[in-house]
Amino acid sequence: MASYYNSEDLKKFGAIGDFGAKNLAQDFFKYYGDVFAEGALTSREKSLIALAVAHVLKCPYCIDAYTTDTLEKGCSEDEMMEAVHVSAVMAAGITLVHSTQMINKAKEVTM
Amino acid sequence: MNPVKSLKAQKHELGNTQYQLDVLNDSGKLGHHFPLFQEKLAPIGLFPLKPTQIDIFQINVGKMCNQVCKHCHVDAGPDRKEIMTQDTMQLCLDALKKHPFKIVDLTGGAPEMNPHFRWFVEQIREISQEIKIIVRCNLTIILANPKYHDLPDFFKQHQVEVVSSLPFYTANRTDSQRGNGVFEDSIKALQLLNAVGYGQEGSGLTLNLVYNPAGAFLPSGQAGLEREFKRALKTKFGIDFNSLFCITNIPISRFLDYLLVSGNYGSYMEKLVNAFNPVAASNVMCRNTLSIGWDGYLFDCDFNQMLDLKVTGSVKHLKDFDFQQLTERDIVINQHCYACTAGAGSSCGGEVA
């Protein structure tokens, strides 16, 4: 295997059920479709959330897919970048809020 | 940076319509193989593609334009001199008198730059008060020269529906497609149209906007985009309009050039082919439209016109206009037609499915 990530593989995503566990794949893609349909949130808002999640979970396939999807849904550059900042600041905050554990432990064991 | 000259003036190979068709049909060496469009139509009973009811008489009054947009399928610009003469306009009027089309759709270029434009609109309105006259106004023409400043009043006087391109509600994305400063001038022009009543509730003056993607991606969700456009334009600029039409960029002329130069041609065509929608195919605009070229030749749509794909049959020019024969013709299709059948479909009036 020359590399672990290949953009061409994104096109194969819908066919993962052909390898095995077809029913589970079908259930997943049905769920996927339902989640991204217009609902209490618009599909546009959901696409921006997906773009943010794609970054924080560092999925190149999803970044590719949801950059295109947000553009197609008419999101501006500022909206897209602000969504990524939300994921970035959440990741930073999640790291920093754990420092309370460190502080608690440090206080517990120090004079 | 937008091109200063049209492909034709640059003597670019894509200024040759046969070269464009060769690219689309992979007669060259690009190595892309896509199924023929007719192979998609045949299994759903749409080949040969036939007209349904021809209601729209779309007239391209010339290729001259004050803008040189990167995606323009007409390859329009200030250097294009192909302009419809008054004699050819008279042939259009004769055809309109013979057959009661519901809509006359005036396009270009910038149609207002044709010196006989106002006369033509007046003559069409004289034929019928009921007929809907649409002008595809690029907005900036209203500000381009003092002689065009009263266009909003002229449109109002003759009850003309205005359809205008605005690729996005931000300057950077609009200007990247249509040229520097186009967004700012477009906003001013929209405000002038609003000031005479266009887009205002109860005025009866319709102002529709056209969104087309500023890049190698498809439009998605016309209703959602319309909401965003209305919110953004009202909040930032106090602008009102009626409807937003989403139009997919057709892979011909300057947009084809962009796709090839940017390396997006293969993936864009693949996207169009994979998004083929049979419902959109049955509602394509060429089934209810007749497209007239600046020189009076007849086409199935403005895109076929720009590829010089004339209608089939013996009636090919307005001087031989025979409505019955035109209703029975086979519509000319080619690989670019995938753009009108992708996803929710695309037409001069937006989504079709």
TrEMBL record, chain A:
Domain (Carboxymuconolactone decarboxylase-like): residue spans on this chain: 24-99
Domain of life according to the entry: Bacteria
InterPro entries attached to this UniProt entry: AhpD-like, AhpD_core, AlkhydPrxdase/COmuclacdeCOase, CMD-like
Keyword Oxidoreductase: yes
Coiled coil: none
Entry GO MF terms: peroxiredoxin activity
Signal peptide: none
Annotated keywords: Oxidoreductase, Peroxidase
This protein's name: Alkylhydroperoxidase/carboxymuconolactone decarboxylase family protein
Source organism of the structure: Runella defluvii
Top-level taxonomy: Bacteria, Pseudomonadati, Bacteroidota, Cytophagia, Cytophagales
From TrEMBL, chain B:
Lineage of producing organism: Bacteria, Pseudomonadati, Bacteroidota, Cytophagia, Cytophagales
Annotated Arsenosugar biosynthesis radical SAM protein ArsS-like C-terminal domain residues: 218-350
Keywords: Iron, Iron-sulfur, Metal-binding, S-adenosyl-L-methionine
Chain ranges of the Radical SAM core domain: 59-199
Organism: Runella defluvii
Descriptive protein name: Radical SAM/Cys-rich protein
UniProt keyword S-adenosyl-L-methionine present: yes
Co-factor requirement: [4Fe-4S] cluster
Pfam families associated with the record: DUF3641, Radical_SAM
Record keyword RNA-binding present: no
Molecular function per GO: catalytic activity; iron-sulfur cluster binding; metal ion binding
Family annotation (InterPro entries): Aldolase_TIM, ArsS-like_C, rSAM, rSAM_ArsS-like, rSAM_sf
